[in-house]
């Protein structure tokens, strides 16, 4: 399947990111660094020709706040789509990561999302992200979350797009995906 050209942004750092808490469907405000992250994304995007692009955002507060800061000067309309929300972490919403089980394996950080009690899990997240991508009608700028961004990028550009595990990857930068190739804009 081919996909339209995409620019994918992760929301800026939140208070809970800084505290190392699982957020999922819950929200916490952007930190001062998070505000700078969004301003950096705005500077990156301001240098691009985004004529004909649509602008889509997760409805969750941290992403919507980032979208306003990063896209406010370039987007006439920013539409929300619930499928861009962060992966659900069920019973672990709001819990400090340090108190959670750490599964063995090459990326225990990611494995926590898979084993979260009453969580969404990666299979359901992938179904949601594939449905979202299938509905895109043209080039788009997306403002979303860390794990949802990873899933979207792995679907569009393959597993190599997310091969380097990082807990806060994507804040303050923009991922450009075109013709199955990902490029990091910083």
CATH architecture verdict: 3-Layer(aba) Sandwich
Spell out the CATH superfamily.
Phosphoglycerate mutase-like
Count of strand segments: 6
Adjacency order of strands in the biggest sheet = 3-2-4-1-5-6
- Please count the helical segments: 6
Query: Radius of gyration, rounded?
Result: 15 Å
User: What profile does the largest beta sheet have?
Assistant: 6 strands, mixed
List the helices and strands and how they pair.
Blueprint: E1 6-10, H1 15-19, H2 32-46, E2 54-57, H3 61-71, E3 79-80, H4 108-115, H5 121-135, E4 140-144, H6 146-157, E5 174-178, E6 181-185
Helix pairs in contact: 2-3, 5-6
Write a brief structural summary.
The chain has 186 residues and is of the alpha/beta class. It contains six helices and six strands. It has a single domain, classed as Rossmann fold (3-Layer(aba) Sandwich).
